[in-house]
Structure formats: structure tokens, C-alpha cells
């Protein structure tokens, strides 16, 4: 490995993978080639994979002189996090069970997200896999090449493979009218969310409740909570959610998922016209914990402070 090669690594896991993730994070933080490890914590396996994949897909610091951004994701088997990470463009995630797997996938696939099994892989084996994954350059000799340099025709293939992989899938035209979500929304009659100006909702299923919701840009949901936890998927738009109970915040855009546990107090700001699908674990209910003016003041103060700190 070149002496000046440096890495910034984002890591996350689900509950089954947390112990191994913690061990790998500690190992990587002591690795001489690793400039920074960002531990993004624990969530459902698809949410944990997504939060890492977003960072690798569109790194905030992509300067040529900056560290190479990679990711580590861990769940029970390593399969689920691998599947969901690979949904993001320019992410090439592979589950590795041995150092040989790591050499092969770095050489052949330019793997930039390492998926590990929290159940099957012990910490010492995971450390060896991670070290090999960092040390192996793209197109290197590997077990799949018989540990010899790749033939010239394969080298030519590798020369074009990264750009070709990044272009898959090709951009598609407007959504087909047979799309289930488009059909669901087409002709839908919305009802205003009276206590939250700018919001409209259509309940499509009762208990557990499923609904399609939309808010105008600039709208705010005051701090509130629900009796039941709920899953949310953003169809389009941009919003920020502050979980006041956990003292966390989440920036959500097209395709992002968020689960909010029952009773957690949260407030929301919409930066674009936003539509999302939401499912509660029971009948829909809502309990306000502040008024609209208080919410606007709190959000303006926090966003202003964040802007001034930049």
C-alpha cells in the first residue's frame, strides 16, 4: 500500500452487528492509513446500510488531496447491509468472510464498502479482512488471478469498468403509469392537516394505519408525539426531522427512510414541497407538545446557529 494513501471510513451496524462493528471501528482508528473513522451507530440493517452508503456515494469532501472515503457495514449475516448499500450509485459493497474475499473484491470490483457478518465473523478475523481490504489496490494480483498480474485483455476491461459500473442503471424516462405508487397517488383526494398549515394527508389503510402525506415548502410540524412508532419513506422533497427525545436530527431527501419510536417527541421543517408514505403501528393519533410559533422560533434559532458556525 502506498505510504501516502489515506482513508476516511464511515461505519454502522444493526443490533446483531453492533459488537463486531465496535471492534472493527476501534481497530481501524489505530490503523496508520486511516485518517478518520466516523461511527454512525446502530439502526435497522437497511437504515444502517443507507446512512453509510450515502456518505460513500456522495462524499462531502471529494477533493483529490483528501482521504479516500469508504464504508463498513455490519449485520447478522452481512447480506442485508450489502444489498441495501448497493442500491446507491458509485457504491460497490461486498460481504467478505476471509482476507482472500477482500483481495478478490478489491482487485476485481473496486469494493468501497465492506460488509461483515456479526454472527459468523469474530473480531480478529474481521480485523484481518479490513486490513487486507485497505491494503489491496484495484487490479492487483489476487487469488482469482492465481496471484499473478491480470492478462492484458482483463486489464483493458478494468480500465473502463469503473465508469461503466457507475452508469448502471441508465437514466430512465418519466414514471410508468403502471407504477404502484403513481397509481396510488393519481387522483387521490387529500384532507388538510388542520393543526399543521401546509400539510395534507390521505389515509389509505386503517390499523395499522398507512397514509400518503404532503407538505408545502416552508411548512413546520410543531413538536409532537404519537402513541405508536412509525416508518416513513420520502417519495420526493427535502425535510429535516429533530428527534427531541433522542437529541438527534435527520436530513431526509428522495428515497430516505426513518423510523420514529412510540412516544418520541419530534418536530419537522420542510425545505421543499415534500411527499412521503408513512405507516403507524396502530390507529393514527397525534399529541402536540408545543405550539406553531414556538416551533418556528426553535427551528429558526437552530438553523441560524448552524449557519453562523460554518
UniProtKB/TrEMBL annotation:
It comes from the Eukaryota. Gene3D superfamilies: Jelly Rolls, Sugar-phosphate isomerase, RpiB/LacA/LacB. Signal peptide: none annotated. Residues 212-269 form the Cupin type-2 domain. Pfam families: Cupin_2, LacAB_rpiB. One of its GO terms (molecular function) is isomerase activity. PANTHER family: DNA DAMAGE-REPAIR_TOLERATION PROTEIN DRT102, RIBOSE-5-PHOSPHATE ISOMERASE B. This is Cupin type-2 domain-containing protein.
